Amino acid sequence: EKKPRSLLYLDGVSVSFDGFKALNSLSFVIEPGELRAIIGPNGAGKTTMMDIITGKTRPDEGEVFFKGDIDLTRKDEAEIAQLGIGRKFQKPTVFENHTVWDNLELALNRSRGVFATLFYRLTGEDRTRIEEILSTVRLAARLDDLAANLSHGQKQWLEIGMLLAQEPELLLVDEPVAGMTDAETVETAVLLKEIARTRSVVVVEHDMGFIRELGVKVTCLAEGSVLAEGSIEFVSSDPKVIENYLGR
Ligand code: ADP
Q1: Which side of the chain, N or C, has fewer Cβ within a 10 Å radius?
Q2: Ranges for the ABC transporter domain (predicted)?
């Protein structure tokens, strides 16, 4: 059944690498304003699914739709990013030798096609936007600090902020809390929920404490398909999920 109003709709996506089916007729729907957690064992296809959504990998079968009827299936990565899908990889890639503010300014300029320059004059509106992002990602007090001097968790938040500068309608976040302190992990759950008030967020994570903290709908992948989907209580009590993932 097609859901034309969904923000993202993967319809029966399959992809193989050297005969190995990384995704096996995967169907997946995200609604506008939804925050969704993706879990599953290593090799389940979580990264491949993100690669399909962002156009890094093309499906062998199936289709991908964004905002109802925009067909992403044959679009390339740059086009898909431009349409409003942002992706944060696991390792933070902030500019260590620039301040927190300058990192956000660079990201804002980049979203306008002005690369790696701080000479593009910011408008008052731009400054307000950067200030809003700073407060969203808990870095308002660190704006003049070099990114290099932030904690690992704060660097992750800064990178999320840099993605927000591009105003994505869908933000994909890969293992944000890996290596974070417990306090940063809890704060990240709150922060992502705030971000999801104005856009959709898909977060891939292994940290079950964090997933419980999020308290949102969970999709568990295994062998390239959806094994179970629903509340964390529902998914984590599913015998198939225990056997394939949690009980390992
Ligand atoms: P997960 O992120 O859930 O750990 P992946 O999507 O990374 O799972 O991988 C799913 C399967 O596809 C794995 O067995 C992996 O080795 C394989 N795979 C993923 N990407 C490639 C690739 N580019 N080339 C070959 N095999 C790949």
Answers
A1: N
A2: 8-248
Alpha helices in the chain (DSSP H): 46-53, 77-83, 100-111, 124-136, 152-164, 182-195, 208-214, 232-236, 239-241
- Each residue's pLDDT tens digit, 181-203: 999 999 999 999 999 999 999 99
Token reading at 142: 């660190």
**Closest ligand 1 atom number to CA of residue 45:** 6
Which atom in ligand 1 lies closest to the alpha carbon of residue 57? 23
ipTM of the complex: 0.93
Residue nearest to ligand 1 atom 16, measured at CA? 43
Q: What is the pLDDT of residues 226-244, one digit of tens each?
A: 999 999 999 999 999 999 9
The CATH label, of 3.10.310.10, 3.30.1330.30, 3.40.50.300, 3.40.50.620, for the domain at 8-246 is: 3.40.50.300
- Identify the sign of the CA torsion 211, 216, 221, 224: negative
Report which protein residue has its CA nearest ligand 1's atom 7.
47
- The three state secondary structure string of 46-99 is HHHHHHHHCCCCCCCEEEEEECCCEECCCCCHHHHHHHCEEEECCCCCCCCCCE
Question: What's residue 116's pLDDT?
Answer: 54
d(CA 87, CA 174): 8
Ligand 1 atom with least separation from CA of 18: 25
Domain spans, the chain: 8-246
